[in-house]
Amino acid sequence: MHLPKAELHLHIEGTLEPELAFALAARNGVTLPYADTEALRTAYLFEDLQSFLNLYYALMAVVRTEDDFAELADAYLARAAAQGVRHAEIFFDPQAHTARGVPLGTVVEGLGRALERSEEKHGISTQLIMCFLRDQSAESALETLEAARPHLHRISAVGLDSAEVGHPPVKFREVYERAGELGLRKVAHAGEEGPPSYIREALDVLGVERIDHGLRCMEDPDLVKRLVAERVPLTLCPLSNVRLRAVDTLEQHPLPAMLEAGLLCTVNSDDPAYFGGYVGDTFHAVHEALGLDREQLRTLARNSFEAAFLDHDEERRAR
Ligand code: ADE
Ligand code: ZN
After folding, report:
1. What is the pLDDT of residue 316?
2. What residues flank ion ligand 2 with Cβ within 5 A?
3. Which of 6, 81, 259, 309 could share a disulfide with 87, CB 3.0–4.6 Å?
4. Which atom of ligand 1 is nearest to the CA of 164?
């Protein structure tokens, strides 16, 4: 689908296609425990979020240098441009790299190099969102934020991702306060596998402006009313929800009911190399499986610009 759109929920590490993974493995002398790209693809059968995360973190071992990060981001931007993306707010997971000895500067400067050429090369404006891994400690998140200080000119916002259940937003109260003091905007994954109370906490305790996923708000009618009244954007990822078994089939995804309820829904690809499609593919899939008509697809595309961290002039240019 070529409607102009913004992508607001995209983990750059989740765009690592098997072909690039093998190319980087060869370049960096890393041995992957798969014979070839086909064998790797057969491992993409997930039970839940954790079973995906295990592979997602393991495969990152091949991405090591500034050039690798730049190549990864450039490959995503080229694919996104071909699917109508005009603006992308891109997550990255610094702790997943620093934990294996890759300096934060390598990650941010490598990604930054691809992003700063993106408008000219791909027609996509970009922002970078630094995510904390919620299954690691709050101290580690604070250290990461401090380590990012020299690179903050490249970073627009902080986010919260990784294994959700058992790691409520309140754990990261202090680091979000500090991020706010540093002028960063705030988002957080909530209500993907975790309960609706995590969505409330992300809003009330962390002060986030958008909820990533937010799928499980539908279990709490009062919360839905609040999200509608406050026009809190939700960055939904329907193909991810099917692959990670948050919903049984795409046909059963609550997106139509969420739109009907008046929620500010956006549609995104999350980890497209693993979940079977980039954002244009996702628009196409929800059109086919859920019967969303052109007008509803246009609403989703319009919502993505409303929910983006763009000022009015930037928004007009991107549309
Ligand atoms: N990291 C990458 N993809 C994720 C997802 N869908 N949920 C939480 N953390 C993630
Ligand atoms: Zn995500």
Report:
1. 77
2. 270
3. 6
4. 8
The pLDDT of residue 53 is 97
How many domains is the chain built from?
1
* Measured distance CA(231)–CA(229) in Å, rounded: 6
What residue type is 3 in one-letter code?
L
**97 domain residue, yes or no:** yes
Q: Is residue 154 part of a domain?
A: yes
For residue 115, CA distances in Å to 70, 83, 90, 311 come to 8, 17, 10, 19
- CA–centroid distance, 161 to ligand 1, in Å, is 6
Tell me if 277 CB under 6 Å of ligand 1: no
Angstrom distance (rounded) from CA 203 to CA 78 = 34
Of 87, 129, 151, the C-alpha closest to 310 is 87
Domain that holds residue 146: 5-313
Binding site for Zn(2+), by residue number, is 9, 11, 189, 270
Rounded-to-integer distance, Cα 5 and Cα 298, Å: 9
Which residues have a catalytic role annotated? 192
In degrees rounded to 5, what are phi and psi of residue 136? -105, 175
Is residue 318 a part of any domain in this protein? no
Ligand 1 pocket check for 271: Cβ under 6 Å: yes
Give the CA dihedral 293, 295, 298, 303, nearest 10 degrees.
-110
- Separation CA 316–CA 319 (nearest Å): 5
Asked whether 191 lines ligand 1 (CB < 6 A), one says: no
> What is the structure's pLDDT at 1?
60
**Domain containing residue 285: CATH number:** 3.20.20.140
CB distance 160 to ligand 1 below 6 Å: no
- Which segments within 156-302 are labelled E, that is strand? 157-161, 185-190, 210-213, 233-236, 264-267
**Global ipTM:** 0.98
Strands (E) in 5-103, as ranges, are 5-7, 85-92
Question: Does some domain include residue 19?
Answer: yes
Q: Which residues of the chain have pLDDT under 50?
A: none
